[in-house]
Structures are given as structure tokens and as C-alpha cells.
Amino acid sequence: MEGVVVESREWFLAAYSTDGVPTSEHLKLRTVTLTLASDSIPDGHVAAETLFISVDPYIRTKLTGTPDGLNLPQYHINQVITSFSVSRVIRSKDSKYVEGDLVLVPSAPVAEYSIIPSSGILRKIDGESGISLPDYLSSLGVPGFAAWVGIELLGEPKVGSNVFISAASGAVGMVAGQLVKIKGCKVIGSTGSDEKVKLIKGEFGYDDGFNYNKESDFDAALSRYFPDGIDVYLDNVGGEMLEAVLNHVNKYARIPLCGMISQYNKVWTEREGVRNLLNMIGKEVRMEGFMLATYWHRFGDFAQDMEGYIKEGKVKSKNKINIGIESFLDSLSSLFTSSNIGKVIVQVKA
Amino acid sequence: MEGVVVESREWFLAAYSTDGVPTSEHLKLRTVTLTLASDSIPDGHVAAETLFISVDPYIRTKLTGTPDGLNLPQYHINQVITSFSVSRVIRSKDSKYVEGDLVLVPSAPVAEYSIIPSSGILRKIDGESGISLPDYLSSLGVPGFAAWVGIELLGEPKVGSNVFISAASGAVGMVAGQLVKIKGCKVIGSTGSDEKVKLIKGEFGYDDGFNYNKESDFDAALSRYFPDGIDVYLDNVGGEMLEAVLNHVNKYARIPLCGMISQYNKVWTEREGVRNLLNMIGKEVRMEGFMLATYWHRFGDFAQDMEGYIKEGKVKSKNKINIGIESFLDSLSSLFTSSNIGKVIVQVKA
């Protein structure tokens, strides 16, 4: 690393963003000076440089100033944005960590350098495992864990189950499709372009898929793709697609609610109402929202499963890596414009 | 009983009823002649006279000709309507039953007399138990069992939980409130008149309640009644009230969907959309529809619990008993006009 005093760029909230896609009016980059000498780091803390930053849709819901659907704490004006990172320890005031350790930090500052409490480190990672560092933010990170909780713990598809996944070419959908396939199910995804449909079938293990932008009637599309109905729906979009699914559920279907990306940029009264929840009674459907914080104690089980799948070649990630911390805002907005494929990651340090 | 040949009045479906409250255009009464001699009753069947008939909202969803939300088999044109009954065996071709036995029949013809397979009998009841026969159709029947499944098996409130129940003065709400109270929770109900609010507080164990017809803003009402949020919501109405509840749920709230009486008389595209399902993610809410058929194997456990509560005076029923099989149609439509309180029952035989 450079000298003891470093310049560190960081993204902070300049103004609340209540609807639409956040812009440079809301999130701004600034440069601060950090002193990383041992005597300026508190006990139980480490100084770290950020290598890779995960860019996830839930971040958008923390920018409005008012906790909404996901109920997450909001960033204050002037506060540095946080996200899941792969970081490298450069100074340590905790005997469990030494300089050079690679660590996963679920709530790291979106900054080039930071001083963080070691209690905020999820775990060390092995740089020699043969797994690429970006994969620790995709199949082994937030989206992979979300896919695993949604499918393994809540969706519980059985051999032969018919599984539907929306936002299938996104970071969660990419992993979820492959997990479902490992379990011997039929899996079909919806996504936003013909190119992405090709991708989920060619690379993410989906049996089939459709481009929702080409379907004027989701109900009709689901009739074609699920003549035998849907047993598990991993919902990443909410709204109109969720409503259509509820017209095609089988008895005892399960709907883990992982995210509702179609709804994040609207105030709740403007969101699409789901009119057919009554179907949940007749079909005895279980719909359940989940947040990863509730399941951190299972992260070890997940990581063990997933590292095995990756090493066996059963789960592959497609990561869209944008270079430089300055690309964070564009990376975040790309999640809401259907312009991304797979997992969006910012590479902070080469 | 009268002679071997009886005249029996029965209600049948004359025309499908797709929206609105069913009328005499849709359901008609006719008189048929039945021969009840032993040699005209097949083996494994009994002839029975109907004493009391349960009148429940789900019946309305079987009159449209097209299975909808509750996914129940539809009556055909000309088919006799069926419902849960207390009946008396008058001839038996099954050694398990003798003349005079009182039996519960989940799917009995809405008729004065009928010949039914003994496999369709749920169980015998003890006329000397001290429990009134109508109670076998209320606290010990369909609505009581629905309340028990919703609260005991799915809602699982804990001591001190805040529980909300809609349609609280209806047959399910009446029992559910008392069950919740036995578990040491706070229970608040919504219902359609000030008189009913008084009733649920005075007789059904509710700590408090409100008249939804007087609340222009359900959200504001729930803020007043649940300053600490809602842990369990037993939904009997759906629509706008369900949406309001989702703005007040606590973390890990459970919403057993028992019925959606506000939605039964509309085609699904005209139903009220619920716009804030996103809240289910942040609060990690579990919403689950249920039908009693899935839980019949637990009926014995339920009946044992409930008979105990009734004998201890912990659960009381208010039954609205309409006299004569001719009152069935008016009894059914009363469920949708807020004109009934407690459990609606038709007394067929004095």
C-alpha cells in the first residue's frame, strides 16, 4: 500500500431519492483523507482496502429517507453508502486478522479504503481456493445466498417440481436456476430480452424462458410454459408478474419473495395491486418474504454447498465487472434499466 | 318418522351466479319424493333426516360454474346444494350406524331427507354431551375448525402477541377471538356496525374492536388500535383491509388467509389489488391460504380441544338460527349483507 495517509474516494448520499432511478443528484463521490497508522486504528478494528464491491437492488430502497417495503435502515444525508465487499486487510488491531487477509464484509463502506470493526467481517476467504474473487460477491455472495435461502430453505422444490423464476438473468436468478436444476426440477425463467433468454438457457441451466417485454399477456405466456402449473415461484419482481403467477399455481405452491425490483422506484400507493390473492386460499399457497439477515447463521452451510457446486462446475457465474469506484452509480442504475446481465460488481482495486 | 315414502324439499342450482349476491333466480327450492325403505337404500349407506344445516360463505364460490379463488368444485345446473349438517339416521345399511344416531355430515344435501354413503359421515355426536346441536355447526363445526386451524396451526400467536381478526362478529371471528384470548394474547377485531363491536367485546372475548364502516382510513384505524404493530392477522375479508394490515405488520408476522368475503361476489379482475406486498419482504411475513379439507385428519384434536373449552365456558357461540329449509337462500345472502351476527344456521327439523 501507499503511505500511512491515503486519499480515499467514497460514495455518499447527497439528497434523498424517493422515486425513479437514483442519479448524480442523489449519490455523489468525494475524496477524503484517511490516516491508516496503527495508532489511529482502534482496538478490534482493521484498516482495509476494498477490492470488489457488490451492487444489489436493495441498496436503492435505502436512499429514500423513509423505510419502506424492505424495511431497511435508511442512509442519512452525507452518510457513506455501504455494500457487501471483498476487501484486503492492510493493518490489523485484532489478532484474528493479519495484513494481506482477504475478507468478506457485508456492510462495507463504498470507499477505496476504510477502517472497520472486525466484528463486521463475515469471514476470511482463501485466495488460493481456485474460486475467483468476484464469485465471492455473486454465487458465493448476496445473490447466491438469496437464491439458496429462497430455493433450499423456503421454496423446497422436489424432484420434478415446476419452478418459475423472474428476473432470471439477474444475479439471483442466475444462481437460482442452476440450484433448481441440481435438484432435478423443471425451471423456466422470465427476463427482459431475447438475448437474455438465450443466455439463461445456454449458461444458467434453464430449461426454457421468455422475454416479458414481448408478452402482452403474462397469463397467456404462463399457460404456454406451465401447462401443468407452477409449484414454486421465486419472485424477484413483484407486481403484474406475481399476479399472473397466482393464476397458475398448483396446490400447496410456495412463493418465496426475494425481491420486487419492478416496484422499488415507486411509492407504495403507485405500485401495482395484486388482485387475485384469493387464489392463495383455494390452492393453499404459502407466500413468504425473506431478508438475508435472518439467515446469516446458515451462511456457512450455504458457502460449503456452493463452493462444492462451483468446484464441480455445477454453478457458474456471469459477472459484469465495472472498473473503478467512480462506476458505482452507473452500476446501481443499470440494475433498474434491464441493461445488465448476471451479477454487477465494481472492481475498486486492480 | 313418517311413512317409508317421504316428500323432501331441497335447494338446487337453477342458474349460475357469477357476480353479486345470489338470488331466487339462481337457487330454487323443489320437492322430491324419496323412498326410504331398507331395500331402496344401498349397502354402506344411511337414510337421514337433516336437523340443522350450516350456512357458510364458501358456498357462494361454488355457484359460478367456474372454479375461482377457492378452487372448489362447482355445482352443476340442477344439482342439489350441499353443506355441513347435523343429521339423524333413520335407516341404516351400515352396521356402524343405527336408527337415531346423530351424525355430522360435511357435505350433506341441503334437503329435508337424504340417502348418503356412510363414508360421508365425519363422526357421530353425543346428544347427551350437554353441548347444543347448533354448536356442532358453529364452534364445533366448519367455522370453529377454520378458526382453530388458522390460529393454532398457522397463526401460532404467542403469549402477548397482538392479533387482529377481520369479520370478527362472523362465525369464524367469533370463535377465533375466544381462542386467541385463551392463549393470552391481545385481540382486536373489525366488524360492520357499532352493535357488533359491542358484541365482540362483550361476548366474544375481544379486547377492543372497530366498525370498519365508520373508518374512512383503515391505515389510520390500525395505527390507533395497534401502536405496537400486528403479529398475527387472521384474514376473513381480503382486499383493502389486508392492504392496510400490511402497513402495520411486525417482523415475522403471520397472515393465515381463511376467507376473503369482501371479494367473493366479484370477478377477479374487479377485485381490489393489494399494492404493498413488498412489505412482506422487509417484515419477512408469511401469508398462507388454507382449506379445511387438508386438515380433516386434525378434526379429532380440534374437537377435543373445543369441547373442553365449551364445557369450561371458555368458548361460547352466538348462533342465528333461521327456521325451515325454505330460509336457506335468505340465510346465505345474509352473510354478504352484514346483516348477520355469529353463526348462521338453518333449523330444518324442529
Fold blueprint:
The structure is a homodimer of 350-residue chains.
Chain A: E1 5-13, E2 27-35, E3 45-54, E4 82-92, E5 102-109, E6 113-117, E7 123-125, H1 142-155, E8 162-165, H2 171-182, E9 186-191, H3 194-202, E10 208-211, H4 218-225, E11 230-234, H5 239-245, E12 249-257, H6 279-282, E13 286-289, H7 299-311, E14 319-323, H8 328-334, E15 343-347
Helix pairs in contact in A: 1-2, 1-7
Report a brief summary of the structure.
The structure is a homodimer of 350-residue chains. The first copy, chain A, has 350 residues and is α/β, with parallel strands linked by helices.
- Roughly how many Å apart are the termini of chain A? 13 Å
What gyration radius of chain A follows from the Cα positions, in whole Å? 21 Å
Number of strands of chain A: 15
The largest sheet of chain A, given as strand count, sense and whether it forms a barrel, is: 7 strands, mixed
Q: Report the CATH topology name of the largest domain in chain A.
A: Quinone Oxidoreductase, Chain A, domain 1
SS content category of chain A: alpha/beta
- Superfamily at the CATH H level of the largest domain in chain A? Medium-chain alcohol dehydrogenases, catalytic domain
| Overall CATH class of the largest domain in chain A | Alpha Beta
Percentage of residues in helical conformation of chain A: 10-25%
Strand content of chain A: 25-35%
- How many separate domains of chain A? 2
The interface involving the most residues is between: A-B, 40 and 41 residues
> What is the CATH architecture descriptor of the largest domain in chain A?
Alpha-Beta Complex
> Which consecutive residue ranges of chain A, at least 5 long each, have pLDDT under 50?
none
Shape of chain A: globular
The protein's oligomeric status is homodimer
Mean pLDDT across all residues of chain A, rounded? 94
In DSSP terms, counting alpha (H) and pi (I) runs of 4 or more, how many helices of chain A?
8
What is the string of SSEs of chain A from the N terminus onward? Answer: EEEEEEEHEHEHEHEHEHEHEHE
